[in-house]
Amino acid sequence: MNQELVRHILDTIAEMFPDAHCELHHSNPFELTIAVLLSAQCTDETVNKVTKDLFQKYKRPEDYLAVPLVELEQDIRRIGLFRNKAKNIQALCAMLLDKYDGEVPKAHEQLTELPGVGRKTANVVVSNAFGVPAIAVDTHVERVSKRLGLASEKDSVLEVEKKLMKRVPREEWTQTHHRLIFFGRYHCKAQNPNCAACPLLDSCREGKKRMKTTERRKTIPKAVSSKA
Question: Region Disordered: which residues (predicted)?
């Protein structure tokens, strides 16, 4: 893909979603880390409903360790995989207290050492909490990048991230991450993408196929049933 086309895609999604931002509610790096950990295989909307009360009850790493695991599990039970996530939260809090004086580290490699924190979570935290340019590849970013040809269909999540980092100017990484998420969440959805009204249809392989299929269905005459 040439850089001119990449620029066209970036400018178009910027026009569509100029105010794209992290939709996980948080007030500090620690809360953001917990929220992103909870968001795995779960919608931001559900996470925000849970963390509204959770962040009132638990302010610091010590607070999460002061209750039995089963109590924390109950506090987040509306979240998918809540038992495993509760265990990771307590282990993460223990490591923060043991190694980092209870503060979330700013370095990417230190973040990924925390229980329950993978590369995507670390990218979200460094970019949104500490202002370090990063592109976190979630399901929306992966899907949209492949549909628009910014990445290949068979690329792994890491390969998608590397291609985006190469094609997108570094100073635009974080904002592009948010805009790709908004584009995928509110326009180019997994099951029902709004292809008919998409300004990037010419760049989308799947969109072209979907529109051709739609047009083909319109031209097929409906079978007329005969009464006996």
Answer: 209-228
